[in-house]
Amino acid sequence: MNAVESAGPALIVGLGNPGPRYEGNRHNIGFLVLDELAARVGGKFKAHKSGAEVVEGRLGPCRAVLAKPRSFMNLSGGAVSSVAKFYKVPATELIVVHDELDLPFGTVRLKRGGGENGHNGLRSMTKSLGTKEYLRVRFGVDRPPGRMDAADYVLKDFSRAESKELGWFIDHCADAVEAVAAQGLEAAQNRFH
User: Fold this and answer.
1) Residue 96's domain is classified under what CATH number?
2) What separation in angstroms does the CA of 78 have from each of 18, 156, 175?
3) Is 74 annotated as a binding residue?
4) For binding tRNA, which residues are annotated in this chain's numbering (predicted)?
5) What secondary structure letter does DSSP report for 28?
6) Catalytic residues
7) Which helix (H) or strand (E) holds 64?
8) How far apart are CA 179 and CA 50, in angstroms?
9) Is residue 1 part of a domain?
10) In the prediction, which pLDDT does 50 show?
11) Do the annotations mark residue 87 as ligand-binding?
12) Strand, helix or coil at 103?
């Protein structure tokens, strides 16, 4: 079922770390994409009792709730679970935007479920939601160069070269999120893969 058929809103969660220190980090691409979506609905994020910052509005034909957990990435599951319960959105209909090391920079891939692949934000969500079967919008950040630790790499800002293209890729990813919400996963995959 997609958001057009569903009675409730599309719930779109971006993963990241709160605070200015992390704003431009690769790990914060979920927040950056949600900022673009918030601009599209004409809203500003506000603190919500669920432990997330939330914007409500319309994305095309869909009612949508955009949520950014206020907790750090590794503990984001509690806030995500709370906001899903508050808006009565089943975990299987949740759309999550996150960084993906195993995809080239800027690549967008859509899927349902799967493993966490060492991503602690996804691990926290899976534990809190009790399922891995939520929808995922994966934004490629590439593998770290040389022997750099993956955890250190995702907590670094995008390179100067990447930053030149980042706005376009964020816009493209936001389009993919809208397509999942409005048309469902399979139609969005056919369009964006």
Assistant:
1) 3.40.50.1470
2) 15, 25, 27
3) yes
4) 22, 72, 74, 120
5) G
6) 27
7) strand 62-69
8) 26
9) no
10) 87
11) no
12) coil
